[in-house]
């Protein structure tokens, strides 16, 4: 399997190099040159346990990894989850909840990042190389990435999060990790500021090469690949449970990475009727699918901070397919968006009219009402991100097609929202209860490229000369 850039200006590469490269050198994102048609494999795949299913799907895209190595990496990632099914499906009322929060940081990002951290270490140990990971997080990616790479001898990680714009528990999950190879940076701005700084540093090829930068954000193809697996797994479980021919998914969406994994599963032949893109008040994606206009606005802080994003990195991958694989068109679109802050994809305000993707939104009031309703009616707690997806799902139900909602985080990560919705302190988890009072380490920086670059360079010098610094 070869990989190409959405912008067409980068050399084709194999899976190993794609993972270590992260973002294409021409500024685009890397995608497989072809998407396998898996329709004839689905009956056999439907009977597999999660690790075996992951192997069968991922080996189609990672065919330069020895099968034994790939199996071991998948098994190691799955072992970090507290549920034997890894990502179980629970029926709640009319919906089916795909629980993605049974990993070490209680968020869906663990599914990909437990695998990716081990994959990085495997590839780097083979060549005795090192990688400095630079990442931006709106809440959950940071802690999941840190847990995936902490203590690994060939890796350092620098995580940017928007100061005061992640939940207190999300901040503690990152800043209480004191391993020498972990650096937490609280940026005085929004997630979009953090993401822009990371993109700017990756675009500076001399800086990127000099400091051996790597990516764990969803711009890294391996993240999308690992997340594709649970769409297949959940669809098989629900089709077997209900006898339906197809399923729909509702996906809380900020950066377009998670729902893009579902989009590729559909392109592989998974019987998906609809992918519901659910946004909060930061609804740039919902507005784009409804009107054809992709226009960035100010970021509004909400109860679902991991979705408080205006510029969705992975949307460029979708645009590549929207353009029929025309990289020149993608380049033109992205340059227009860079210059003007907006992109017109249809004429006359028409919707994108995608064959599978639909969009909806749930604001703060809807989020709280949905959390309250599901607790009172079903005794099932939703975190605020999942509640947005449930709200949109309930407004798009089809009696002939069961809907699977991605439960992206454990509700205990957002205890304030749960208390506000239900009036009670219902959401607890022992992993999170142990965090308050732990020592923390974090560096606060202005939201500038130079501040982050300067910190990274100083930290790398210190790591080479630890005695002189200490």
Can you give a write-up of this model?
The chain is of the alpha/beta class and 470 residues long. The protein has a domain at 89-105 and 222-428: Rossmann fold, CATH 3.40.50. The protein is built from 20 helices and 15 strands. It has helices spanning 15-21, 42-45, 50-58, 67-79, 109-127, 140-149, 168-175, 191-203, 205-210, 221-242, 257-267, 284-291, 315-322, 327-340, 364-378, 384-394, 415-422, 430-433, 449-464, 466-469; strands at residues 3-5, 30-32, 89-92, 95-99, 131-136, 155-162, 182-188, 213-214, 247-252, 272-279, 293-295, 342-344, 357-361, 403-407, 443-446. The strands form four sheets. It has a six-stranded mixed beta sheet. It has a five-stranded parallel beta sheet with strand order 8-5-6-7-15, with helices on both faces. Strands 1-2 form a two-stranded antiparallel sheet. Helix 7 links the parallel strand 6 and strand 7. It starts with a strand and ends with a helix. Mean pLDDT is 94; it is low at 465-470.
Q: Spans with pLDDT under 50 lasting ≥5 residues?
A: 465-470
Strand content: 15-25%
Summarize the biggest pleated sheet: 6 strands, mixed
Distance linking N and C termini: 47 Å
Helical amount among residues, as a percent range?
A: 40-55%
| β-strand number | 15
Structural class: alpha/beta
CATH architecture grouping of the domain at 89-105 and 222-428: 3-Layer(aba) Sandwich
- What count of helical segments does DSSP give? 20
Q: Radius of gyration over alpha carbons?
A: 21 Å
Shape: globular
User: What's the CATH class label of the domain at 89-105 and 222-428?
Assistant: Alpha Beta
Overall mean confidence score, pLDDT: 94
The name of the CATH topology of the domain at 89-105 and 222-428 is: Rossmann fold
What strand line-up does the widest sheet have? 3-4-14-9-10-13
